[in-house]
What we know:
seven-stranded mixed β-sheet; Methyltransferase; elongated; membrane; transmembrane; 19% strand
Amino acid sequence: MHQHKGDYGIDGSFKTVSARGQAIGLGAQAAALLGLAAISWRRGKRPTAAVAAAGGAGIIASTALYLYATRSGKFEAWERILDSLQLRGDETVLDMGCGRGAVLLATAKRLPRGRAIGIDLWRPDQTDNSPSATLKNADLENVGDRIEVRTADMTALPFDDNSFDVIVSSLAIHNIPTREGRRQALREATRVLRSGGRLAIADLWDTRRHAAQLRELGWQDVQHRNVGWRMWYGGPWVSTRLVTATKPGSIP
């Protein structure tokens, strides 16, 4: 596994409540439940104590899994996904919704003769999400000369048809609020990908629809699977799934 040197923040939605605020809220809930468990136990209310203790422990365990996924697990999972793509090293790769560059820069490390381009709207889906944070991480990872970042909408990509050899996306398309918007993002990905090019999308929902949409378009080797526990964002009920496929036609 490649070691990462950058600061990639914490994944999540921080538009309404900051990461610090969410952490304080979860800590307070866990503490309240564990406190209730202790009080109930002393008063002989064993069933109440057991339920409260389980609730508090559940919050702590879910939070630990979430932090593991965002700080370590996703890197391990994406190393395996990138391994499966078997990059030659001279491709042009697009990362849709690159954020602070976790997948973008891991990909760039595999492109000594290629280029990785990341696009994002830089919304608060990660802590301190910004182009400058991504570029700083690129320099720390020694791939600043291989990457480019742009402010762009996934539903209207600023690229010509057939511009990329590979497209990747991690936990980004689900942020588009409408189903039609998410379908449009996938249509844009299929437009800018070259014939014979490969697509890998890891996300929390709508992945079955993505796979079905690609099959309707006649794409080859469409696969849909659970990424596994490394990208459980709180538990198996918030698991990441991966869609991979190859665009029809031969590589030019």
